[in-house]
Amino acid sequence: MTRMDLPAVRLARRLAAAALLALLAGCSSLPGISGLWPFGARPAAVPQPVDELVFETADGGAAPAFPQYWKRNTLVVDLSSAPASGSVTLRPRAAEGWPVRVAFRVVPGTIGQLEVRALQRVLLPVNPAAGPPVDLELGPSVLARGTPRLVLSWGQSPPGA
Asked: Do 61 and 139 belong to one domain?
């Protein structure tokens, strides 16, 4: 190789590197390929509805069911579509009993307080300031494996008042 060929080789290497970078940048904008990149943003997974709990009225009849989702190891009952006040009885569908963790998703401003009656009676106040839905989780001592049912009441003022 002569001294004259050295600048040409450097120029060829620079052009090849620039072409490679342009190719990689173009591939990252394609919708099918962008998910393959480790630094690409992954879309949030849509929760899959499940059917773990049975909803009943106070007299044992069928009540309208609310959506249920798993959020890690917590069963979330979505009360976003619930009326301003009401009551429902829940029982586990499976013979294994209750999930380890149960939470209720409410929209602040529409529901003021939840009352849960199972092994213990628990009042869960909801901040009245409007905002995104919040998950109110029950403590582990509220439900045990042998608990036959859970009575859930909600309203603007304390449900028992």
From this structure: yes
